[in-house]
Specification:
Elements: H1 7-19, H2 25-36, H3 42-48, H4 52-66
Protein backbone atom coordinates (compact mmCIF):
# COMPACT_ATOMS: atom_id res chain seq x y z
CA UNK A 1 0.00 0.00 0.00
CA UNK A 2 1.20 3.50 -0.74
CA UNK A 3 1.34 5.53 2.49
CA UNK A 4 1.30 8.77 0.52
CA UNK A 5 -1.96 7.97 -1.26
CA UNK A 6 -4.41 5.54 0.33
CA UNK A 7 -6.82 3.52 -1.79
CA UNK A 8 -9.97 5.48 -0.95
CA UNK A 9 -8.33 8.80 -1.80
CA UNK A 10 -6.91 7.32 -5.01
CA UNK A 11 -10.31 5.99 -6.11
CA UNK A 12 -12.07 9.24 -5.26
CA UNK A 13 -9.44 11.24 -7.15
CA UNK A 14 -9.76 8.96 -10.17
CA UNK A 15 -13.54 9.33 -10.28
CA UNK A 16 -13.30 13.11 -9.91
CA UNK A 17 -10.65 13.22 -12.65
CA UNK A 18 -12.93 11.29 -15.03
CA UNK A 19 -16.08 13.25 -14.25
CA UNK A 20 -14.52 16.69 -14.08
CA UNK A 21 -13.42 19.06 -16.81
CA UNK A 22 -9.72 19.84 -16.58
CA UNK A 23 -7.16 21.05 -19.08
CA UNK A 24 -4.61 18.50 -17.89
CA UNK A 25 -3.73 16.12 -15.11
CA UNK A 26 -1.68 18.81 -13.47
CA UNK A 27 -4.65 21.21 -13.65
CA UNK A 28 -6.77 18.57 -11.92
CA UNK A 29 -4.27 18.07 -9.10
CA UNK A 30 -3.84 21.81 -8.59
CA UNK A 31 -7.58 22.42 -8.44
CA UNK A 32 -8.03 19.49 -6.07
CA UNK A 33 -5.37 20.91 -3.77
CA UNK A 34 -7.06 24.33 -3.76
CA UNK A 35 -10.63 23.11 -3.27
CA UNK A 36 -10.12 20.15 -0.97
CA UNK A 37 -6.93 21.10 0.86
CA UNK A 38 -5.59 17.71 -0.24
CA UNK A 39 -2.28 17.85 -2.02
CA UNK A 40 -1.39 14.80 -4.08
CA UNK A 41 2.02 14.92 -5.67
CA UNK A 42 1.90 14.70 -9.44
CA UNK A 43 4.49 11.93 -9.53
CA UNK A 44 2.67 9.93 -6.85
CA UNK A 45 -0.70 10.13 -8.59
CA UNK A 46 0.50 9.31 -12.09
CA UNK A 47 2.92 6.56 -10.98
CA UNK A 48 0.08 4.97 -9.01
CA UNK A 49 -1.88 4.56 -12.26
CA UNK A 50 0.70 1.92 -13.31
CA UNK A 51 0.20 -0.19 -10.17
CA UNK A 52 -1.02 -3.75 -10.74
CA UNK A 53 -2.24 -3.88 -7.13
CA UNK A 54 -4.38 -0.78 -7.65
CA UNK A 55 -5.73 -2.19 -10.93
CA UNK A 56 -6.81 -5.35 -9.11
CA UNK A 57 -8.30 -3.27 -6.30
CA UNK A 58 -10.37 -1.08 -8.61
CA UNK A 59 -11.52 -4.20 -10.47
CA UNK A 60 -12.82 -5.62 -7.20
CA UNK A 61 -14.64 -2.39 -6.40
CA UNK A 62 -16.19 -2.24 -9.86
CA UNK A 63 -17.46 -5.83 -9.60
CA UNK A 64 -19.01 -5.02 -6.23
CA UNK A 65 -20.79 -2.01 -7.73
CA UNK A 66 -22.31 -4.04 -10.57
CA UNK A 67 -23.57 -6.96 -8.48
Amino acid sequence: MCPALDNSTWIEAGVRRCLGSYQSGRDFLQERAELHQTKILRSTFFESLKSKRRLASIGTHMRNLTI
